[in-house]
Amino acid sequence: MDAWRERWTPLVRQVMQFGVVGCAGFIVDVGGFNLLRFAGGEGPLYDFPLSAKVASGAAATVVSWLGNRYWTFRHTRRQAAHHEFALFALMATLGTLIALGCLWFSHYVLDLRSPLADNVAANGVGLVLAMTFRFWAYRRHVFSGHGDGSGPSEAAEELDREGQTVSGRV
Questions:
Q1: Is 125 exposed, middle or buried (0-12, 13-18, 19+ CB in 10 A)?
Q2: Average pLDDT, integer, range 105-121
Q3: What is the per-residue pLDDT for 159?
Q4: Whole-number pLDDT of residue 27
Q5: Residue 95's closest CA among 64, 70, 117?
Q6: What does the pLDDT read at residue 55?
Q7: Is 6 left (phi over 0), alpha (psi -120 to 50) or beta?
Q8: Which residues touch 81 (CB under 8 Å, ≥6 apart)?
Q9: Which of 77, 111, 121, 124 is least buried, going by the fewest C-beta atoms within 10 A?
Q10: Closest Cα to residue 72, out of 122, 27, 14, 143?
Q11: Sign of the C-alpha dihedral, residues 29, 35, 41, 43?
Q12: What is the pTM (predicted TM-score) of this model?
């Protein structure tokens, strides 16, 4: 049991930290989306659900990067913050495209256009799929500690093998 705990506890802690940061990003994303679409009945982007999702997703990306950089992946972050943010933004954009695809399909193909349907598609199904992709991508490519982003760092590989980082903490 102790070997299992040593192996999985750091990863579980990292997943939980990612979840807390993700909750903050979720609040920014969903709150921003709903304000832009429905504030006062018909918000400023009421007729543009995809634009509202892009704007709210961009704000959530900044919040999430800061939380993940300085908390979740603090031991494997890159020295060059601008390079790390560029990779983070790319992976976040790919995740946002997943959520946008769900919203587009529901809104335009299935013709489900109510606030509830838009939220379920974009902020339920879409964000769950996007979150799964993002955790993998951030851990593997963004916060790998590997300078060029071509693969996981020795620390990340050590975490996979030993269940902990080189420093013994996640």
A1: middle
A2: 94
A3: 44
A4: 95
A5: 64
A6: 93
A7: alpha
A8: 69
A9: 111
A10: 14
A11: negative
A12: 0.66
